[in-house]
Design brief:
With 572 residues, this protein is an alpha+beta fold. Helix content is 55%, strand content 16%. It has a 6-stranded antiparallel sheet with strand order 3-2-1-6-5-4. A hairpin with a 2-residue loop joins strand 10 and strand 11. Helix 3 packs antiparallel against helix 4, helix 4 runs parallel beside helix 6 and helix 5 packs antiparallel against helix 6. The longest helix is centred in the middle third of the chain and has 56 residues.
């Protein structure tokens, strides 16, 4: 510990400060200034007393007046210029300028008593000063010095006058004992107060830490949390609530009234009903924003009540996007349907094999071309059903053994160009779509049909939000690094909302009511199956901001050379 905090309140055996100034500097400063002000006040009272005696008796106090004036000067100097810093030792200059000066001044006044005035009660000030701000050693040391002064004064008085000597010594002994008792009691009370303050500060620190932890937990919740008082003033709000209510970041740091926005009136009504009924509420509400449309929320309210009634009640509101809840329910249903589909696929496989075998036996005996055409149709559809059953079973398996890389490598540029061209012709997109291929001699590890399905989903999603201008959609390929290629689909659509961006690749989550929300989820599942990575970012293309979905593909065996011009215009 720094030497400036080695208090004058420290004994040689152990620390027993009545007030630990190193831990509680504010408390030490206040008490120090209070005692210094009391010393100045007593000095002024002594000066006034000397002046009153001179005015009444027209006799000067002589030495007593001089002592009082010197004491006033010393106390003012310490009060105005000294800093409330604990001295470096138990009996150093700081002690001499405070407790030592007091004992010396009051002792001198005792020796030069004028008019029979007793100054013994003044010794309580240095005893209290040393007891409250010091350890027991310093308190008893000061009390002992005062007792010795009183006994010396009684002896001096006994030698100068004739009277009851025993009474004076008895009075000095009683006063000295009283100062010892005062020192002990004041020191114990100060220690008790110090311990209580330590407990209070520890409790406050623990409460502050708990509050910090609570804030971190609330901030990390995906569910919105809103705390409102009885007047409708928002006391606390987390980031999720800010996104759901479309508030600015500045509003999160300041109090605001919930009724200030017209769109928030359903929340105000639910909060008011909670306070009136004194019961938790739960409801689905809609917030109608003129510019952003309608947001549907599921809201639960809880009432936080003070047990002793010392504080007002608060309403805690939990907000959750209904689209997220519905997507979660649909995901659970999808998992159940997946398990059921796997069971059904197992049951279908055996009858399907019998149908295929019977169809093959029947085809061997047929001669009529029309009948053979019918059996061919049956064979093709049976094969198709078999592939569907195999895909369902493959998805349901936890550990699927993928084919070798050689069996699934395909030329990236050729596949992208062919798939995009067919898609453009089918959707009559014309010049709205452009392609730039720059992954020559690169083959990627992906099954052809699955890559085609991935691209169609991304192109359908881009077409849904793109404009009608030329080059509104761009498809690009790039050999980004050794062993990795990049496929991207860019469109000049509007930026996505933060809530949509967070759940972009989750199943059944969509910003449109009629959309199933499965397109991007299927894309992610296909990418994960082949060790690819799909992502989203907002980027500029030729000065136009747009949404880009990119896929990082694993490169396989080299593909034959393929020469394409960058950004060719696709056929209509």
């Amino acid at each position: 510990m720094d030497s400036q905090f080695h208090s004058w309140l420290e004994s040689s055996e152990r620390r027993s400060d009545a007030l630990d100034s190193a831990v509680y500097p504010d408390s030490f400063d206040r008490l120090w200034r209070m005692f210094m002000t009391a010393r100045v006040t007593i000095a002024v009272v002594l000066i006034v007393l000397q002046g009153s005696m001179y005015a009444l008796s027209q006799t000067s106090g002589g030495p007593a007046a001089t002592i009082c004036a010197a004491y006033l000067f010393a106390t003012l100097a310490v009060r105005l210029f000294a800093k409330p810093r604990p001295p470096q030792g138990a009996f150093d200059l700081q002690w001499l300028l405070t407790v030592g000066v007091d004992v010396a001044a009051f002792s001198a006044l005792e020796f030069v008593q004028v008019g029979g005035i007793g100054y013994t009660p003044l010794f309580a000030l240095p005893v209290l000063l040393s007891s409250v701000l010091g350890p027991m050693l310093l308190a008893f040391g000061t009390a002992a010095s005062v007792a010795l002064v009183l006994l010396a004064t009684a002896w001096w008085t006994a030698t100068q006058t004739v009277g009851e000597t025993n009474a004076r010594f008895l009075q000095a002994a009683i006063s000295g004992s009283g100062f010892f008792l005062m020192a002990w009691l004041a020191n114990q009370l100060a220690l008790r107060l110090s311990r209580e303050e330590a407990k209070a500060r520890a409790s406050h620190s623990a409460a502050s830490m708990q509050n910090t932890v609570n804030q971190l937990v609330i901030e990390g919740l995906a569910e919105g949390v809103l705390v409102v008082d009885e007047h409708g003033t928002v006391r606390s709000i987390n980031r999720a609530t800010g996104r759901l209510l479309a508030t600015s970041d500045g509003a999160r740091n300041a109090l605001f009234v919930l009724s200030r926005e017209k769109a928030w009136q359903p929340l105000v009504a639910l909060m008011t009903h909670t306070f009136l009924t004194q019961r938790p509420q739960e409801s689905d509400i809609s917030l109608d924003y003129p510019a952003a449309g309608v947001r549907r929320l599921h809201v639960r309210t809880r009432l936080a009540q003070a047990r002793d009634g010392s504080q007002e009640n608060l309403c805690v509101m939990f907000l959750e996007d209904l689209r997220v809840m519905e997507a979660r329910l649909r995901t659970e249903k999808l998992a159940a349907m997946g398990r059921m589909s796997a069971a059904v696929a197992h049951e279908i496989r055996n009858p399907l094999a019998a149908i295929s075998q019977a169809n093959a036996l029947l085809e061997e005996d047929l001669q009529d071309p029309g009948h053979k055409q019918l059996t061919a149709m049956g064979r093709q559809n049976a094969l198709r059903l078999g592939r569907i059953v195999d895909e369902i079973l493959n998805v349901s398996r936890a550990h699927e053994s993928l084919p070798t890389a050689e069996a699934m490598t395909l030329p990236l540029d050729e596949t992208v160009r062919q798939t995009t061209s067919e898609w453009v012709i089918h959707h009559q997109a014309g010049e709205r779509v452009q392609i730039g291929v720059d992954a020559r001699h690169v083959a990627v590890w992906f099954e052809a049909e699955h890559l085609r399905r991935l691209m169609i989903n991304l192109l359908d999603n881009a077409l849904r939000y793109a404009s009608d201008r030329v080059g509104a959609i761009r498809v690009e390929t790039l050999a980004s690094s050794p062993g990795q290629s990049r496929l991207s689909v860019w469109s000049d659509g509007a930026p996505l909302e933060k809530t949509v961006h967070t759940h972009l690749f989750e199943p059944f989550f969509s910003s449109e009511i009629r959309s199933t929300g499965l397109g991007l989820y299927i894309c992610r599942e296909l990418c994960e199956r082949y060790g690819a990575l799909i992502g989203y970012q907002r980027v500029d293309r030729n000065g136009v901001a747009g949404n880009e979905f990119f896929v990082l593909l694993r490169s396989g065996a080299p593909a034959p050379s393929d020469q394409y011009a960058a950004f060719e215009a696709l056929p209509t």
